[in-house]
Structures are given as C-alpha cells and as structure tokens.
Design a protein that fits this description.
110 residues, 5 helices, 81% helix, elongated
C-alpha cells in the first residue's frame, strides 16, 4: 500500500527536516479533497480532485491510493463521473494513512 522506497527518496530529496512539513502539507491538502469528495453530489470537479489526490499520493508513496484515484479519474475523464465510487477512495486513503503513520512511528522508534 505504501512504497517505502519512494518515501525514503522524498525524505532524501527534501531533507529530513523539511520532510515533516511536506507530509503535513500533503495531509492537509488531501483532507480538503476528501471532504469535497464526501460532502457533495456535484461531480463537476471530480476529475480534477482525483487527479490532485493521485499526484499527491504518488509523490508520497501512497501507491494503492494513487491507483484507485487513477481509475476514478479515467472514468470521470470519459464522461462517466456517476460511475466513480468514492467509498474505495476514502477507505484506501484511511488505510494508507494508518499504514504510513505506523511505519513512520516504527522508523522513529528504531
């Protein structure tokens, strides 16, 4: 679910000190998108929201979330936003976040 190699690369790229800030910004951005996805039946911005979520997820190593968002984004792009099931996006986000936080906590303790 998490590409820990990508997480390590990002930490090296931005530096350990700035890594926490990058993670915090990602999580804030994702929380906004998740709220939009769950709080509206308006699908006009669905493709853009899923694209944004996918990009952030892949940058941070949330590979499964990126995959789920990509599938939804492609449906929305093809003019089928009603076929996009948001529940797996939200569930995958929550599971990925839990795994990510547990992995970070474990690496800090080691």
């Amino acid at each position: 679910m998490i590409d820990w190699q990508r997480v390590g690369e990002l930490r090296e790229d931005v530096g350990a000190q700035d890594f926490g800030e990058v993670v915090e910004l990602f999580l804030e951005e994702v929380a906004e998108v998740v709220m939009r996805l769950t709080g509206t039946q308006d699908s006009s911005g669905l493709e853009a929201d899923l694209h944004l979520l996918k990009g952030g997820a892949l940058n941070l190593g949330f590979t499964e979330l990126g995959r789920v968002c990509d599938a939804g984004e492609r449906l929305a792009r093809r003019g089928r936003p009603e076929a996009v099931d948001i529940d797996p996006v939200i569930a995958t986000y929550k599971a990925s976040l839990a795994e990510f936080q547990a992995g970070l906590d474990h690496s800090r303790a080691a």
